[in-house]
Design goal:
The structure holds two protein chains of two kinds. In chain A, a hairpin with a 5-residue loop joins strand 18 and strand 19. The longest helix of chain A has 18 residues. Chain A has a six-stranded antiparallel beta sheet with strand order 4-3-2-5-6-7. In chain A, strands 11-10-9-12-19-18 form a six-stranded mixed beta sheet, covered by helices on one side. Chain A contains ten helices and 20 strands. Chain B folds into two domains: 224 residues, PmbA/TldD fold (2-Layer Sandwich), CATH 3.30.2290.10; 263 residues, no CATH class. Chain B is built from nine helices and 26 strands. In chain B, the strands form five sheets. In chain B, strands 9, 10, 17, 18, 19, 20, 21, 22, 23 and 26 form a ten-stranded mixed beta sheet that branches. In chain B, a hairpin with a 4-residue loop joins strand 24 and strand 25. The chains are: A alpha+beta, B alpha+beta. Chains A and B meet through strand 1, strand 2, strand 3, strand 4 and helix 2 of A and strand 1, helix 1, strand 3, strand 4 and helix 2 of B.
């Protein structure tokens, strides 16, 4: 294999080239395409994992890249690269143009949007962006010490990320957003059971790792020696993590075009009262409880949208092309989820349950059938039998085959919301659901 | 200024040593990817990306640290190495006196180039688009087909790996993939059918135009037939699983279950652990005696074949399950010694320069049966069963025991004959019970090296790829239809 060399750009370029806005302007100035859009993304991330009561993986990564999308008439393509030199940017633009010229005309082409008014965001904390590796390790150690004191082992992760996005296009659109996220998750292991808790926040200093470890340890102890129960339909209290995991699949199923073309459960359902009165689901990127992205399809500003209003399916996710074709309103895609909360605490919900199951979280949820939105998945890290208002014992985990449509229809109680969301940033409450279908059991 | 990748990697090692690392490796890697996607008679996405950077992994104060950076100046490389050492020292706060022991390995000084006859990056976009659009046109000519999808994806990874133990290795791997599907829409229902030839670490020659065009109408017609199929029965049935379907079954119920890091609890917080614990090696019945599952990271064209892993361990071939008995794991140099193994099997791979290598599933295949047996003969020998083709819904618990799978197409077998199509089929089992029910595997004439390109593992999530070859195999008396009642009730209820 011939020896390979790499271009080392930053040593020979003016300092201003390190400024992404300067590069983005250069690309827009240089482009001879009919329309050009440029996006700059930077991620600075510190990821720590721990298992068996010690840190097992500790990473710092910094990534920056530029994406250029160009159009010639109705032909378009995009190219991405992380060579942020002037020559690299020129090559990137050239590549995008070559690809766009080679692609067939797109009958569904939608032009680049003009200037946007983006929602005001409150989503960045220096404490998260600047946390040092030793401070992160000490925070993890606080959780581990809680587990050690209980004679348990702790595994988990603590990630802090600083995201920056800048947009510009040849129609005058410009926008920028800087956002931080801190995610702490821990699983406590007892002899034959586990318990789990998490915390997600913009500001890492608000995350109390010891408190989260205590919750995980309490669950692991309460779940000790789990008993088998027969599969079947049970009344359940789903904790917020479980609710968020299932509702992410619900949000992803709301594509208006799939519904209009008869390829989804939502065909003909918009405007109908389908779910319980207490169910209201919406997206609002600017909500500080769980910030989403201000940027949506093609650089459009993310609108606040109510998807389900007191049980009525009020909106479907509509792309710019489909909105124009169907002469309906554009919604874009959701970038976060907020479910209207109630006044009841989780403890009060448990006290109010005569017989049923408490589900800490789910695992490995997958689609089974898009036409009924049937999903399958497993319970994990804390499944409990509740009797006469108290946690009676741990239960061996179940597989469910259930649809969020039925879950939202049979939601009889809604608690206080917290931030969660493995897949979709969510601010959702625990909910009580009647007749949740568990189809089979596992051995632990 | 132009600087050789190898020089930069070695410079990073010098900087790591100077900062106090007792072990270091540096990976300089360039990634290239081009994707073209069609929806109906249009190209709806054409994207291209290039990305280069450096990952430095170190041991300092007896703990791991890692830093990734795209700043490939001398100063940037040095800063990256110093940061990795600082991160390692922070890790050590949780394990005072800790020590990382790596399985011994001879320094890897080698180069590897994946086989390719045609460079896919040199094939004009027009030719790729034209092929996918012709396939779409054929599918859309079938009544009731309302939506079609097509995709080609080409990835190139050029990597240099250097370590303080003397490893200096270089690889250049291209992965190619093509596939398409059609959705038929009827009254209150929609069903799909897909065609996915095996993705491989080869060039554009895997895109066989005549084959893709020849299958388009069949795929569309089967999507329509799927729409009109009978619902899945509920109860126990014999299952015959085709090689593409088995790729996913093997992946989920054997591949992940035999990653030694998760067996040891290191993945507990996300992917989970495994029932296949070390004391079971050599004595645990994972499957029936016809079940032979072999790992082979030397398989030509295999998705996990790259010459060496990111520990600098050369590709190997070994048994995971031999005649039904659990024999081995996929390992890294860190985890192999924990169970007394004196050499890693070479499964430590990172998906990007900014990612740390983690234990990954190798090319892991169900070996063909030893007696001559065709699919037709296997079907003829089955009284009441279901033949499942392709991948569909899949879910498995975090110990890799309880799983439920769907598929892409389902055919009812009655008295040794295929009598028609079924829909909404799921089957559910417990891993060792399922593999113990395997009583026949077709011979090597029916063996196909399918694979997985989107294996998610790790935290932060990394995406990897591996081949899972198989010939059709039969599994006796498996529970089917566990989701049928749920689907039926929602259809009946009108939501």
């Amino acid at each position: 294999m011939p020896s390979t060399t790499i271009h080392n750009p930053t040593s020979q370029l003016p300092k201003r080239a390190a400024d992404p806005r300067w590069l983005m302007d250069r690309i827009l100035d240089r482009s001879r395409a009919d329309a050009t859009a440029v996006r700059f993304d930077a991620i600075s991330k510190a990821s720590s994992r721990f298992a068996n009561n010690e840190i097992t993986q500790n990473i710092v990564e910094r990534k920056r890249n530029l994406t250029v999308r160009v159009s010639f008439g109705r032909r378009s393509a995009s190219a991405t690269a992380n060579d942020l030199s002037d020559a690299g940017a020129e090559a990137l633009l050239s590549r995008a143009c070559d690809l766009a010229r080679a692609t067939p005309e797109d009958s569904e082409y939608v032009e680049e949007p003009g200037a946007q008014k983006f929602p005001p965001m409150s989503c960045h904390a220096l404490s998260t962006a600047q946390i040092s590796p030793p401070d992160k390790a000490r925070a993890i150690l606080k959780g581990i010490e809680v587990a050690r004191a209980e004679g348990l082992t702790l595994a988990g992760s603590h990630h802090t990320t600083d995201f920056e996005t800048i947009l510009a296009n040849s129609k005058g659109l410009t926008g920028a957003c800087r956002r931080t996220e801190a995610v702490y998750s821990n699983t406590a292991m007892s002899e034959d059971a586990s318990g789990w808790a998490e915390a997600i926040d913009t500001d890492v200093s608000r995350i109390d790792t010891a408190a989260r470890a205590r919750v995980a340890c309490e669950k692991a102890k309460a779940a000790l020696h789990p008993r088998p129960l027969p599969p079947g339909k049970y009344d359940v209290i789903l904790e917020p993590a479980a609710v968020g995991e299932i509702l992410a699949y619900f949000l992803w199923s709301l594509d208006a075009r799939a519904a209009d073309e008869g390829r989804s459960w939502a065909a003909g359902k918009k405007g109908r009262k389908l779910f319980a009165d207490g169910v209201t689901l919406r997206s609002d990127a600017a909500d500080p409880c769980v910030p989403g992205s201000p940027f949506n399809e093609g650089g459009m500003a993310t609108p606040a949208v109510t998807w389900v209003d007191r049980g009525t399916l009020s909106n479907l996710c509509t792309s710019r092309y489909w909105a124009r074709k169907q002469k309906t309103e554009w919604t874009g895609a959701p970038t976060n989820l907020l479910m209207a909360e109630g006044n009841t605490t989780l403890d009060q919900m448990i006290r109010g349950m005569d017989r049923g199951l408490l589900v800490t979280r789910f695992w490995y949820i997958r689609h089974v059938d898009p036409m009924t939105l049937t999903l399958t998945g497993m319970t994990r890290d804390g499944l409990f039998w509740v009797e006469k208002g108290k946690i009676a014992h741990g239960v061996k985990n179940f597989r469910f085959n259930e649809s969020p449509l039925g879950m939202l229809e049979r939601t009889v109680q809604v608690g206080r919301a917290v931030r969660t969301g493995e897949y979709m940033p969510s601010f959702v409450p625990p909910v009580r659901v009647e007749g949740f279908n568990f189809a089979s059991a596992t051995e632990f | 200024m132009m600087r050789p990748m190898k020089d930069l990697a070695l410079h990073a090692l010098d900087a790591a040593r100077a900062a106090g690392a007792t072990y270091a490796d540096a990976r300089l890697a360039r990634y290239r990817r081009r994707d073209i996607r069609t929806q109906d008679k249009r190209v709806n996405s054409l994207t291209d990306s290039e990305d280069i950077g450096l990952g430095v992994r170190v041991v300092a104060d007896g703990s791991w640290g890692f830093a990734g950076s795209a700043d490939l100046t001398n100063e940037g490389v040095e800063a990256c190495a110093r940061e990795a050492v600082a991160v390692a020292r922070a890790s050590a706060l949780t394990r005072p006196g800790g020590k990382i022991t790596l399985a011994p390995e001879k320094a890897q000084v080698s180069s590897f180039v994946s086989p390719r006859e045609i460079d896919p990056f040199k094939i004009p976009v027009e030719r790729k688009a034209d092929l996918l659009l012709r396939v779409a046109e054929r599918m859309l000519s079938v009544a009731k087909i309302r939506k079609t999808y097509g995709a080609m994806s080409f990835r190139g990874v050029h990597k240099v790996l250097a370590s303080t133990e003397g490893t200096l290795a270089e690889s250049d791997v291209i992965t190619s993939q093509v596939g398409y599907g059609a959705t038929a829409v009827g009254k209150n229902d929609a069903k799909s059918r897909n065609y996915e030839p095996p993705p491989q670490t080869r060039g554009y020659e895997i895109v066989r135009e005549e084959d893709l065009l020849a299958n388009a109408q069949r795929v569309a017609e089967q999507a329509v037939e799927h729409l009109q199929a009978k619902p899945c029965p509920v109860g126990k049935r014999d299952l015959i699983l085709d090689p593409l379907h088995l790729a996913l079954t093997i992946h989920e119920s054997v591949g992940h279950a035999t990653e030694l890091d998760r067996v040891l609890g290191m993945e507990e917080s996300l992917a989970g652990r495994s029932f296949a614990t070390p004391e079971k090696i050599g004595n645990f019945r994972y499957g029936s005696p016809v079940v032979n599952l072999v790992a082979d990271n030397t398989l030509e064209g295999g998705l996990a074949t790259g010459g060496f892993d990111d520990d600098g361990v050369a590709g190997q071939r070994w048994d995971i399950v031999e005649e039904g008995i659990l024999r081995g794991y996929s390992t890294s140099r860190e985890v192999a010694p924990v169970i007394g193994q004196d050499r890693s099997t070479g499964g430590n791979r990172a998906d990007h320069w900014s990612s740390i290598p983690i234990v990954r599933i190798p090319n892991l295949s169900l070996m063909p049966g030893r007696r001559r047996l065709t699919l037709q003969e296997l079907i003829a020998d089955t009284k009441e069963g279901i033949y499942i083709e392709g991948m569909g819904s899949f879910s498995i618990d975090q110990m890799r025991l309880n799983f439920q799978f769907g598929g892409d197409a389902f055919w009812e077998i009655k008295d040794g004959r295929i009598t028609g199509m079924l829909k909404d089929v799921t089957y559910q089992s417990i891993t060792p019970r399922f593999w113990a029910s395997c009583d026949a595997v077709c011979d090597e004439r029916a063996w196909v090296p399918n694979g997985v390109l989107n294996c998610g593992k790790g935290d932060p999530m990394q995406i990897s790829q591996m081949t899972h070859g198989a010939a059709p195999a039969r599994f006796r008396q498996v529970d089917v239809g566990g989701a049928s009642e749920t689907m039926k009730s929602y259809r009946a209820g009108g939501i």
